[in-house]
Fold this protein.
Amino acid sequence: MSNPSGERIDLRVPEGVKERIRKSAALTGRSMSDFIIAAALQQAEETLAAVERWEMDETESRFVMSLLLAPPREIPNLRKLMTGIRSKKMRKKNETTAAI
């Protein structure tokens, strides 16, 4: 896993930590760099997975699916807002075309 041409990370560790990592790496037949990278990457993947992925039970899943499959509901204020934006864009486009 070690890549001598890769990016560098410098660490300061509490007393005794480096020796424990060295011993553990040696027991697994890896270099300290490989051992540290593998452990840090595993933790990073687990952390990102916990943040980026949701897990739902069957009840929650059915509720979300019912929301997704339901027909959209009318939101009058949203329609008014979007109509106003569309009208402004059309006026601006017409003004630009008339100026040319």
User: Anything to note?
Assistant: The longest helix spans residues 76-99. Residues 1-53 form one domain. The CA atoms of residues 94 and 100 lie 10 Å apart.
